[in-house]
C-alpha cells in the first residue's frame, strides 16, 4: 500500500520523530512562558495566557498586592506588532540599567491599536523579570471625532506629505491624538498612578541604581507631575493653529489655570519694547479713586501674556514626549480634560498634525507650576540622533555617554538651554 508516496515502517518512525519533536518544542515553550511570566515583584505565577485580550485581571491582582511605600507605576509602551525588535532593544536596556533591580521591577503595560500577536506577547514578556500586561486601544480612541471631514483630512495629508515629518500619515495623527487625550483612561492603567513612556529603539545610557535614581520615587516625594530629559523645537508647520486655539481655551477657562503657572517659560513676546513702555508708564504711580496702576501691572501683564492673540507666541519648545514620566492624575484632572476636549473639538489633530508633545507641554505650562516639572538630569537618554547625557563628573562612571554629545544637535540649543534658563528664573521668582 502506498501511503502518500512513503512506505514501510520508516514513515511511521519519521512521524513519531516529528510528533516527539513538536511535543518537546511545546514543553520548552511552556516552561519558557512559565519562567517569564513573573507575578508581583518577581513571584512566579502560572503560564501567561496568550491571546488578543486585555490582561485586566492580572494587572488588578498585581496592584491589590502592591507594596505600600512603592509608587504605583508602570512602564508604558505603545507599539505595533512590527515594532517588536525595536521594543526589545529598548526594554533590554531599561531592564539592565534600572528595572531589573528588586526595588524597581515595575510592570510593563503594552498598548496597541491592533491585537498583539502571540509572538509579541511571549517575546516581550520574556524580556523582563517584571510582569507584562497587554491591552487593546479602544477603536473610539484611535479614530476621528465626528466633526472631522475625513475627505478633507486626507487631502490635507497628501498636501503635507513632503512638507513635514509624518505629514502624510493618518496613523501618526491617531497616535498623537491618543497620547494627547486617551492613554490615561485605558482600563489597564486604571489602578496606576504613574507611567514611564518608552518607545522602540531608544537608548538608556546610564545605570540608575537604587531608589535614589528612581524617577517615580523622586517625583512622588517632590510632588511633581511631569519629567523630561530633552526639550525640542516643534516643526512650525505642524502646529500653526495650536497656540491660538489654546489662547481661546485660556480666555474661556481662567479658573483652570494655576497660580504661578509656567506659561511665561513657553511663550515669547514679539513686542518686548512695547511692554517695557507700559511697565514704565504704570510705575509712574496711582490715580483717581484709590486705583494704583502698580498693583494692576502684574495682572495686566499676565492677561496680556495669556490672552493677546498676536503679540505673544508659543516658542515651539516642548518636552520631547518619547521620554516622559508622568503622574496620571495630572492627565485625569478636570483642567487637562477640559484642555484636551477644547483642542479635540477643533481640527488641528487632523487638518494640521498637532503632536502630543507640544500638547502635553502647553497643558503643563498652564496647569502646573515650574516646581511640578522635573528635569530628570541623571537619566542618559537617546532617541534617533538626539541625546542627553548627564554632565556632572560624578555621573560619568555610571554612564556610557559623553556630555559633549548633548551639543551634537546644534540646531536645538535655543530650546534646550533657553527653556531651562526660563524655568529656573520662574522657580527663583517663586522662592
Ligand atoms: N500601535 C501603534 N503604535 C504606534 C503607531 N504609530 C506609532 N506608534 C507608537 O507610537 C510611538 C511614537 O511613534 P514613532 O514611530 O516612534 O514616532 P517618532 O518617535 O515621532 O518618530 C512609538 O511608541 C510607536 O511604537 C501605530 O500606528 N500603532
Ligand atoms: Mg520614536
UniProtKB/TrEMBL annotation:
Source organism, top-level taxon: Eukaryota
One Pfam family matching this protein: Glyco_transf_15
GO molecular function: alpha-1,2-mannosyltransferase activity
GO BP of this protein: cell wall mannoprotein biosynthetic process; protein N-linked glycosylation
Tagged with keyword Cell inner membrane: no
Keyword Transferase appears in the UniProt entry: yes
A GO CC annotation given for this chain: Golgi apparatus
Keywords: Transferase
Family: Belongs to the glycosyltransferase 15 family.
Record protein name field: Uncharacterized protein
The organism's taxonomic lineage, starting at the top: Eukaryota, Viridiplantae, Chlorophyta, core chlorophytes, Trebouxiophyceae
